[in-house]
Amino acid sequence: MKRPVARITGTGGYLPERRMDNHELSKRVETSDAWIRERTGIIERRIAAPGEMTSDLALQASRRALEMAGLTVNDLDMILVGTISPDLLFPSVATLLLRKLGGTRFIPAFDLQAACTGFLYGLSVGESFIASGQCRRVLVCGAETFSRVVDWRDRSTCVLFGDGAGAVVLEAVEGTEDGRGLLSTHIHADGVSADLLKASGGVSAGPPSDRGPEMDGIGYVLMQGNEVYKQAVTVMGRLVDETLAANGLEKSQVDWLVPHQANIRIIQGIAKRLGMGMDRVVVTVERHGNTSAASVPLALDEAVRDGRIQPGQLVLMEAFGAGFTWGSALMRW
Ligand code: ACO
């Protein structure tokens, strides 16, 4: 018997209302609009309101994805959330999301911690549950309030990130001859480069009651940006080759690249490697900054809703993040 294929039947995105542009940032730290634009492509990012949590952003994006799919939360068999800025250490954002969506079935719901690759990890896990026949409908979300993890005194990181959420509904489809659906997902980690990009703290910092002044700064993002940059470009290039080879496809057959939105120069590098013009690359980094696990589903949602991505087209999604982790998904839309 043929395995069911997973198809994305709904997408949704949500950005907090508050915009913070580069000029505002240059009043906080020693930086400039010119430096940020030239090195990253970012012009502005969104910042969650006080009290607006990662699960609240996930809720808005998920509602929109469910609405597009014509489903309610009780039609779902699983909820997956990629995040590194959860509301709480536990319980997971996915369980909070299940409750906020009003779910009354006791479906599995859990978070995936794979940094900026969290959404791709979620797609891969969701696809596996669908292919094995254990689930028919899976909500996969990437959601972050990264503004709460950055050190607003550190110009080398605070200019890069933003808050937001994106979500998709994956549904099982059988017996289709059109080849539409997820063709393959590829997820990886090395774990050897953890010190290049991390947020220390959490349990390793000890109980909050025992923390002295030497712990100031613990809990914030630390990044050796230029080293991460080099590795991201190399690894993403290999990943694109791996993904296309697994499907016997050529670079020229890809209609849309939906990359992780960390830096416009990394995105341009991958597009060049694919031989793609930037008119076939979905770019949101200038308006969103790096929203970590939310960046790929947010970009995807934008290009689906504005009609760029059309049924039958080949869509390549990819991401790279702390760990390092990296992942891709190839989809016949
Ligand atoms: N404004 C002005 N100057 C700055 C700023 C700033 N905001 N930040 C750093 N600088 C200075 C540095 O101090 C340095 O000065 P120096 O030459 O006097 O020492 C100079 O600019 C160059 O710094 P670099 O770090 O070498 O700059 P680079 O060109 O590498 O750009 C950047 C930095 C944008 C961070 C880039 O390296 C990058 O995008 N890296 C990859 C990020 C990424 O992909 N992360 C993975 C995903 S994130 C995740 O998983 C959570």
Summary keywords:
333 residues; alpha/beta; five-stranded mixed beta sheet; four-stranded mixed beta sheet; 10 helices; binds acetyl coenzyme *A
Note down, in words, how this protein is organized.
With 333 residues, this protein is an alpha/beta fold. A hairpin with a 3-residue loop joins strand 12 and strand 13. The two termini are 23 Å apart. Bound molecules: acetyl coenzyme *A.
Write a concise synopsis of the structure shown:
By secondary structure, the chain is of the alpha/beta class.
Write the layout of secondary structure elements.
Blueprint: E1 5-14, E2 18-21, H1 22-28, H2 33-40, E3 44-47, H3 54-69, E4 78-82, H4 93-100, E5 109-112, H5 118-131, E6 137-145, H6 155-158, E7 163-173, E8 181-189, E9 197-199, E10 221-223, H7 225-246, E11 256-259, H8 264-274, H9 285-288, H10 295-305, E12 314-321, E13 325-332
Parallel strand pairs: 4-5, 4-6, 11-12
Antiparallel strand pairs: 1-7, 2-3, 6-7, 8-13, 9-10, 12-13
Bound molecules: acetyl coenzyme *A.
Rg from Cα: 19 Å
Low-confidence stretches: none
Instruction: Give the strand order, joined by hyphens, for the main sheet.
Output: 1-7-6-4-5
Bound molecules: acetyl coenzyme *A
Q: Please tell me the overall pLDDT.
A: 94
**Biggest sheet descriptor:** 5 strands, mixed
Structural class: alpha/beta
Strand content: 15-25%
Spatial separation of the terminal alpha carbons:
23 Å
User: Count of DSSP helices?
Assistant: 10
Number of strands: 13
Order of secondary-structure elements: EEHHEHEHEHEHEEEEHEHHHEE
Helix content: 25-40%
What gross morphology would you assign? globular
